[in-house]
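Write out this protein's structure.
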Amino acid sequence: MTTKRKSHPASFKAQVALAAVKGDKTINNLAGVHGVHPKMIQAWKKQLVSNAEKLFQSGAKSVSVEHEALQAQLYEQIGKLKTELNWLKKKPPVSVESKRAWVDVDDAALSVSQQCDLLDLSRSSYYYEPVTESAENLSLMAMIGREYTEHPFLGIRRMRTWLQRKGHAVNRKRVQRLMRLMGLEAVYPKPRLSVSSVGHKVYRYLLRNVAIERVNQVWSTDITYIPLPTGFMYLTAMIDWHSRYVLSWRLSNTLDVGFCAGPGMPAGVQHGPGRAVHVDVPYVESERGRCADERGWRRSLPGQRVRGAVVATG
């Protein structure tokens, strides 16, 4: 008769081996209590003692691997944040006013000093409050503006002399600052004005040697500005050369293409097509930017051949 070999679970083996290592009971006593042969208990004890060092080494290795993985993840996040911060510093708002608008005083995570450092904005610039011009300077600027409108050829020194004759104690530097603030400059012949730039398109003047003999033969359009108490408005108008009659006009506070090319349509509808339209300002460069172009005048004056500065119609 054969007997089946008894199999013990690992938990039972570990319990018996730990009891043998403690030494509270002899191996024979443990064998009698647990019903196991003493040689088997000795083998389990030997196996536990020999593998104890490996058990601790593998545990330390696993902890080290987890720590290195966490450290690598944190370093990756730090590198990403550093890259984003460098990108933000390369492309901040251009103007100081825009940077000041980005600063949030109520932010609990970042102080105002830290936000200014991230935006590359000094705290003195953030807390700076611009000083407005005095009432005297505003009065002087109004006088300068009116005199410049009447005599645009007056420079800084002649404008200073004119103000002194009016009883105002001003020097050249003060007048220079106010005129620069207003964007005013004396009109005078400058060098190389007759030399055209490379790539500049030359428009043929279609009205040369043309006799203006009747109404609606030639129209002309131009842009100017009208001063107001708090600024100015742009005025564009179209007139008939022969009768000097204002065919169409329009006011605006901006110089967009629709405004510059707009006066032609009402004139064409009300008075019929003329022979030619002389456009003094097909392009407005300087500080006003590019205003009108041939496409805008084609839309404004349908059925007519547009040639740059002159719009011709059979």
